[in-house]
Structure formats: C-alpha cells, structure tokens
Write a structure and sequence with these properties.
Elements: E1 4-12, H1 16-27, E2 33-35, E3 49-50, E4 59-60, H2 61-74, E5 78-80, E6 84-88, E7 94-98, E8 103-111, E9 115-117, H3 123-127, E10 133-134, H4 137-140, E11 148-152, H5 156-165, E12 171-175, H6 185-193, E13 197-200, E14 203-209, E15 216-221, E16 227-231, E17 234-237, E18 241-243, E19 274-276, H7 288-317
Parallel strand pairs: 1-2, 1-8, 2-5, 8-19, 10-17, 11-12, 11-17, 12-13
Antiparallel strand pairs: 3-4, 6-7, 7-8, 9-18, 14-15, 15-16
Helix pairs in contact: 1-2, 1-7, 5-6
Length: about 325
C-alpha cells in the first residue's frame, strides 16, 4: 500500500520560487512539504557568477541555491528528494503521486516547476554553458562589457536580448536561420537602427569554439551549406523557453505557450487553492529575484486561502 502523507501546503519545485515559498509557508506554520524534482535548485545550479541577487556582491549559483535550501529546511520545511509523477487537482485534498510511489495529499499547492531555455543541441554549446554561452542577456550581459557577442534567434525575445546587450557589448551580431525576422515591426526598426547591431541572415550556429571560454562560432549557410567562422566572445541563445507544465495540462488554465495563467496581481491559478510562482508563469522577467518574490506571494496567498477558505475560493473563481 502506498505511503500517504498529508500537508497543508505542497510545493512542487525547488528554485528560488519554491524555496522562498517554503520559507514563508514554514514561518506561517503550514508545515510545507517541498518536492525538489529532477534538478534541485533549478537553473541557478548551472549558473556561475550571480551578481544581481540582493545582498550578495557576487555568489556562485549553486552556492546561492544551497543557502536557500538550508534556510527552507531550517525553518521547518520537509524536503523530499523525488519528483511528482502525477497530480489530481480535481479533488480535495489535492493528490500528488511521487515517482517513488508515495502519495502526498495537500490542502494547497504551489507550483514552482520553472521553465527551461531551448538550446541548439550542440555538444560544444553544452560544454561552454556558463563559460560564455548563455540563455539570459539580463543575467549575463554585464560580463561582456566591450566585447563582441552573438545572439541566435528571430523572434521578439532574440531582438530584445540583442538590443539589451548593446548596453554592454561593443558589437552584437544577430544570427537568424531565415531571411526575415519574426519579431514585431517596432522591435525590428529599433534593432536595424542600432549601429552596434549586425545581422547574419540564413545561417545557423553549428559549433561553438573555445577551450575554457567562447572564442568563436561556426556558421552554416541554410541555403548553400557553406560554413565560415566568426570570432565572438559570447553566445546568447534566444530561441524560446519551455515551461515545465505538462503535469498540469488539462487541469489549469494556460496560455498558448503552456505558461500557467494567474489572476492579476496574484499567483492564484484557475483552481482555487493552487498557486503558481516563478518562471512557470512568468515569461517577461525570468529573474531569480522576481521568482523569489512570487514564491513569497504564493505562500502568503496559500495561508490566506487556508484561513478564509470558501471566501477566497469564491474571489478566485469570480
């Protein structure tokens, strides 16, 4: 028979949003259970220097997440090294089945499963992640002051990342596999008007070169198959993100990209008692500090839901 435990607050995910929700949930005496998932600590565990976390001049990503984990456990969170294999949000209490076979029944749930960047799928790209290869200009652009960087992509995200990088880099090369961008016309006009930006059309990045850091990239022409090398100091991949929401499809309202929809100025989802925080619902900022803020919001809203139950449920459904 499956091991069944009950909690007032179940948190799924262990990035900044999940751990912060755990801290606030524990301090509210909700005795939260946090299921850490496949990658405890989230994307920051594969990030090197973090220089935009309040109170830290510079800290390694894994070290920051270790601190958050320790704090969550210290205040009373039960940490479970497992993954949620399935969850039923149509019944109360909500019922989550773990990969190990255990079952957790919860009065409230905070979803903090995050989102993952889409990558090019190159071995050299994987080897140099955090060593000049990045998927977040806002996070890492500062490290490329006066450098030449390349951005891969053709949508609004790629154009916005390229424009942001012009604040630091001496030159930004935007590489797109087609002959025109998908980004909206306003963004395109801003991009083409920026003297620091150079376009490379009809090309893909097929290799990233460098030993301990990015030294260049190999471009392959999508029309002729010809290859050439381009010397750059950094590569930013901006071809989209995938929210980790497959577990909740058909149970929660989501947008066309699979991000969980929440009420305005809230983390409340379409199911009363279920809250979403961090990159799983945020495709605009995608920052550790904003994820943490939403984790705080989610725990406070869960506490309020438990205290006022039916009234809060009615307000969420309205």
């Amino acid at each position: 028979m499956a091991d069944i435990r009950h909690t007032r607050l179940l948190i799924i995910g262990s990035g900044p949003a999940g751990y912060t929700a755990a801290v606030y949930g524990a301090r509210a005496m909700l005795n939260p259970v946090l299921v850490e998932g496949l990658q405890p600590g989230g994307q920051l565990t594969i990030t090197t220097d973090v220089e935009n976390w309040p109170g830290e001049v510079a800290i390694m990503g894994p070290d920051l997440m270790a601190k958050l984990r320790t704090q969550a456990e210290h205040v009373g969170t039960e940490l479970v090294s497992d993954i949620v294999a399935e969850i039923d949000l149509s019944r109360r209490p909500f019922r989550a089945v773990l990969d190990s076979g255990g079952v957790i029944e919860a009065d409230t749930v905070v979803i903090a499963t995050g989102a993952s960047a889409r990558w090019l799928g190159l071995d050299s790209e994987t080897r140099l992640r955090g060593k000049g290869v990045s998927a977040c200009a806002t996070c890492d652009g500062f490290f490329f002051r006066g450098k030449h960087v390349a951005v891969v992509g053709g949508g609004n995200t790629a154009v916005e990342e390229a424009l942001f990088l012009t604040n630091f880099a001496s030159k930004v090369t935007l590489i797109h596999r087609r002959g025109e961008l998908r980004a909206d016309k306003t963004n395109q006009q801003r991009l083409f008007a920026n003297p620091k930006v150079e376009m490379v059309w009809n090309a893909t990045v097929t290799e990233v070169t460098g030993a301990d850091g990015v030294e260049g990239i190999v471009l392959t022409d999508t029309q002729t198959g010809a290859t050439r090398s381009l010397a750059v100091d950094g590569l930013f991949v901006a071809i989209g993100h995938d929210p980790a929401t497959s577990l909740f499809k058909g149970q929660l309202a989501m947008d066309e990209e699979g991000y969980v929809l929440t009420a305005p100025d809230s983390t409340a989802t379409s199911v009363p008692g279920v809250f979403a925080a961090g990159d799983v619902k945020d495709k605009l900022y995608r920052q550790a500090v904003t994820a943490a803020g939403m984790g705080c919001m989610a725990a406070l809203e869960a506490e309020r839901f438990l205290a006022h139950g039916a009234d809060v449920a009615h307000q969420q459904a309205a």
